[in-house]
Amino acid sequence: MARYTGPACRLCRRLGEKLMLKGERCTTQKCALERRRLPPGQQRLQRRRRRMSDRGVQLMEKQKARRSYGIMERQFRRHFAEAERSPGITGENLLRILEMRLDNVVYRLGFADSRRQARQIVRHGHISLNGRKTDIPSCAVKAGDVIAWNQKSTGTEYYKMMVERIDDKVIPGWLSLDRDNLAGSVVTPPARSDVEIKLDDKSIVEYYSR
Fold this sequence. Notes:
Layout lengths: L7 H8 L16 H4 L18 H16 L3 H13 L4 H10 L2 H7 L6 H9 L3 E3 L2 E2 L12 E4 L7 H9 L9 E4 L4 E4 L14 H9 L1
């Protein structure tokens, strides 16, 4: 399966925004964007950069969404096609689809410090969906689904660490979390206001509509 294996901080510098790809590290002075604001590449060419066109802005918004959720272009296009087929506003449908990916739900429940880490947790088989073990990060959840840790994974050092830190996590209103058993459920599909990433979904729709 194709995936980005390069430096995560390089993506933030390229887009000029923090994508929170490394969790708590992104909030400290160790963040690469705090230490080096310029985009990656030859620094002597930075002054020659021109004003970004409308098409460039649309591309940047699309890339921001794709990088934030850790999705490759081909899969992102499939999500967009699904959003177009669904009734309602395409942009909001797309963000709802992205938010209801299993890896994102694991992250929003506080089981991981970043979506990258959440994807790894799912891929390693630590998470169960409605009582069944699953290792597919892109699996779409729906209202009423229960996301929990597999019994064998509750003995890991990482799980013990999460038990101690889970009280500090802020859980969005469209999810419910049993903090004693580290099991969560989807109460309702997320609304546009529930998306924590600042994205211009209209620009994304315009990018794919041309």
